[in-house]
């Protein structure tokens, strides 16, 4: 795609965020109702989506970057680290949290990463704690408490493993966002994320090869769900988000990107019929409020329209 109109940009970012949110819910259905192994799905999703993103780069962007990134030793090492400790870690922990709990809680816990990044930067003395930061972290903690307990400290509203994997997903997303900054200043995001997905997928293939699955037992519906997760929930979602930055500011895409957890919550509750208590809705509102507060902070999001210079486009 070339330059877009603003209307096209809005269309792309809205549908990209919705695809991400729904993709998590469809993954939950595959795990819990179609008996798909989480290791196999993560491996297959990463390999196919990574290949497709590099294919897009080859045909419509600077194709020389695809292998150019490997010609620089330092960049190659950073890319491998990012693929293993960033991409693979965030993808696996997120899917594991969905597998043990549900897509709504997993997505919201992963969205605690902005608050984690604020805390990290303050502790490293790389930024000064502001009143907005305190409000952001407070909303995250309060939202997390209500989301996981539904207002009762005597018992958790979701399995412990789902919470552990979800928090780890937030931590992995924080590393994923911070570590890739220098790489994104040198190379297109499609190149970095595409290769990172392939690195993560190849690594996980040693544990669960993608060809080791009983395809004959899969129904047509299962195949369609798989295609949605890989094509719409991963490849197109990321591509749409990146392309939207050609006509929208990073602030606007960040704001509209908050549709992802909203889509995950709504589809989990109304499509999969997962119960959500009153205080869990309060917790959801707090976390969405945190996301909106960050997105509306003009000092936190640059107005540049070059995707490789923004942290936010690195979606999972």
Mean pLDDT: 85
Q: Biggest sheet, in brief?
A: none
Shape verdict: globular
Number of domain units:
1
Q: Percentage of helical residues? A: over 70%
Low-confidence stretches: 300-313
Strand tally is: 0
Question: Structural class from helices and strands?
Answer: mainly alpha
How far is the first residue's CA from the last residue's CA?
22 Å
Number of helices: 14
Question: Please, could you describe this protein's structure?
Answer:
With 316 residues, this protein is an all-alpha fold. The chain has one domain (6-309). Helices cover 72% and strands 0% of the residues. It is built from 14 helices and no strands. The protein has helices at residues 6-33, 38-60, 64-68, 73-100, 103-110, 113-123, 131-149, 160-179, 181-186, 189-205, 220-244, 250-256, 259-270, 278-295. Helix 2 crosses helix 11 (220-244). The model is unreliable at 300-313 (pLDDT under 50).
């Amino acid at each position: 795609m070339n330059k877009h109109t603003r209307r096209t940009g809005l269309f792309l970012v809205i549908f990209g965020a919705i695809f991400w949110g729904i993709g998590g819910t469809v993954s939950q259905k595959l795990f819990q109702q179609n008996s798909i192994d989480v290791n196999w799905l993560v491996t297959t999703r990463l390999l196919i989506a990574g290949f497709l993103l590099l294919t897009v780069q080859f045909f419509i962007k600077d194709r020389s970057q695809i292998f150019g990134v490997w010609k620089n030793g330092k960049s190659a090492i950073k890319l491998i680290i990012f693929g293993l400790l960033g991409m693979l870690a965030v993808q696996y922990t997120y899917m594991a949290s969905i597998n043990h709990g549900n897509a709504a809680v997993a997505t919201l816990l992963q969205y605690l990463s902005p608050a984690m990044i604020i805390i990290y930067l303050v502790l490293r003395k790389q930024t000064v704690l502001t009143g907005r930061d305190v409000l952001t972290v407070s909303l995250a903690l309060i939202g997390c408490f209500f989301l996981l307990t539904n207002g009762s400290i005597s018992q958790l509203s979701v399995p412990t493993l789902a919470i552990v994997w979800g928090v780890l997903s937030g931590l992995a997303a924080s590393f994923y966002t911070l570590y890739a900054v220098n790489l994104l200043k040198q190379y297109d995001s499609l190149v970095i994320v595409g290769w990172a997905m392939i690195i993560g997928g190849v690594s996980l293939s040693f544990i669960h090869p993608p060809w080791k699955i009983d395809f004959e037992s899969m129904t047509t519906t299962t195949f369609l769900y798989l295609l949605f997760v890989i094509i719409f929930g991963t490849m197109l979602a990321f591509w749409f988000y990146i392309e939207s930055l050609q006509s929208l500011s990073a602030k606007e895409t960040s704001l509209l990107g908050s549709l992802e957890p909203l889509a995950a919550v709504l589809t989990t509750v109304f499509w999969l019929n997962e119960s959500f208590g009153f205080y869990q809705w309060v917790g959801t509102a707090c976390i969405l409020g945190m996301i909106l507060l960050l997105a509306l902070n003009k000092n936190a999001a640059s107005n540049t329209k070059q995707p490789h210079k923004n942290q936010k486009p690195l979606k999972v």
